[in-house]
């Protein structure tokens, strides 16, 4: 008997600023959002994508699950940010046992600590030919064992059972893949997931993962810039950014509210850095896959809600940029998330929705 009833799956996203939970029910190839909830993460409980205070998080998880109306049970959660290393390996064809040995050996080249200190997994994602030699393409994922253990401790302290531990950026792609492909004519998609402390930049082409990067630019970077510019505390700056944060575009009328202009001026250098890093990722992709092109950039994360950010990046990158909506392929009743609230929180819920979708393939 399924713990959540027939065909129900829960995704739990633990971020540095917020905990998000989504329960999906599958029906006829489509999905319905049964419950959804979110709450602030206890200050300092998550740093750089890693859980540092499992007990404090456990209490917050219990509150989110209860408030959302989700029955405690199995959940799909994820680690991300700088806590995870993702690499693509190209190896000669070999048996599964040989592949395990080879992947572990290759991992030592990319992991800055001992292989015995990590939890590691890999998957064969395709084949290629190099120098007339057939190679298998292997996706390697590794995370430090102590980081995984603390994440699991937080979940168990929250009264839920970790069913699968995924990678945050993979969950985002899963939730937004339809929007990434729409209008792309087979072109590559750049997913930009804007977290509180860091941002994940992932490029996919068809079903292939082409590039994944994590950069030290996030919503907090913008808030700190506003706090410095307006000479105020971080929390006050966060509220001002939320209420008056707008990216002003060249050629459009300036606002009468001077605070809006001041907030924009404070954020602009950080946004410029973000655009530069996304462009570098795109340039690297084009260098390796010269016949490919990028068709669309899809934004997610709480900072994706910043007014005009999509238009700003589209102008800077020369590529169509949209704000992702993970609920686009789900039925969402107003009693679960009223339309206006859904529009407001959707970009931040991408990881949680993607995690719940992962549950559908791990029955």
TrEMBL record:
Residue intervals passing through the bilayer: none
InterPro entries found in the cross-reference section: ATPase_NBD (IPR043129), FtsA/MreB (IPR050696), PilM (IPR005883), SHS2_FtsA (IPR003494)
Domain of life the protein comes from: Bacteria
Matches recorded under Pfam families: PilM_2
Residue stretches making up the SHS2 domain: 9-176
BP term (GO), one: cell division
Protein known as: Type IV pilus assembly protein PilM
Species: Candidatus Segetimicrobium genomatis
């Amino acid at each position: 008997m399924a713990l959540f009833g027939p065909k129900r799956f829960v995704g739990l996203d633990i971020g540095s600023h917020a905990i998000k939970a989504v329960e999906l029910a599958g029906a006829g190839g489509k999905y319905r959002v049964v419950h959804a909830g979110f709450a602030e993460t206890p200050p300092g409980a998550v740093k750089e994508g890693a859980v540092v205070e499992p007990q404090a998080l456990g209490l917050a998880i219990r509150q989110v699950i209860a408030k959302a109306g989700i029955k405690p049970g199995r959940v799909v959660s994820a680690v991300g940010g700088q806590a995870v290393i993702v690499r693509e390996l190209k190896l000669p064809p070999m048996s599964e046992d040989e592949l395990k040995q080879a992947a572990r050996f290759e991992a030592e080249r990319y992991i800055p600590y001992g292989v015995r200190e990590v939890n590691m997994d890999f998957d064969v994602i395709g084949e290629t030919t190099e120098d007339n030699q057939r190679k298998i393409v292997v996706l390697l994922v590794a995370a430090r064992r102590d980081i995984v253990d603390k994440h699991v401790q937080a979940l168990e302290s929250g009264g839920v059972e970790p069913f699968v531990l995924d990678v945050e950026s993979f969950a985002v792609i899963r939730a937004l893949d339809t929007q990434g492909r729409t209008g792309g004519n087979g072109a590559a998609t750049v997913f930009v997931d804007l977290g509180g402390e860091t941002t994940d930049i992932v490029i996919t082409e068809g079903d292939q993962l082409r590039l994944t990067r994590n950069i030290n630019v996030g919503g907090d970077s913008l808030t700190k810039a506003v706090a410095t510019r307006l000479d105020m505390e971080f929390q006050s700056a966060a509220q001002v950014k939320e209420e008056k944060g707008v990216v002003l575009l060249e050629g459009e009328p300036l606002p009468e509210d001077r605070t809006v202009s001041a907030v924009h001026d404070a954020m602009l250098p950080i946004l410029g850095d973000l655009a530069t890093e996304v462009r570098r990722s795109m340039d690297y992709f084009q260098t390796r896959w010269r016949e490919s092109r990028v068709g669309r950039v899809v934004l997610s994360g709480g900072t994706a809600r910043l007014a005009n950010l999509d238009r700003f990046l589209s102008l800077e990158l020369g590529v169509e940029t949209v704000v992702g909506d993970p609920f686009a392929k789900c039925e969402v009743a107003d009693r679960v998330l009223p339309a206006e609230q859904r529009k407001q929180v959707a970009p931040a819920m991408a990881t949680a929705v993607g995690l719940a979708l992962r549950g559908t393939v791990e029955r």
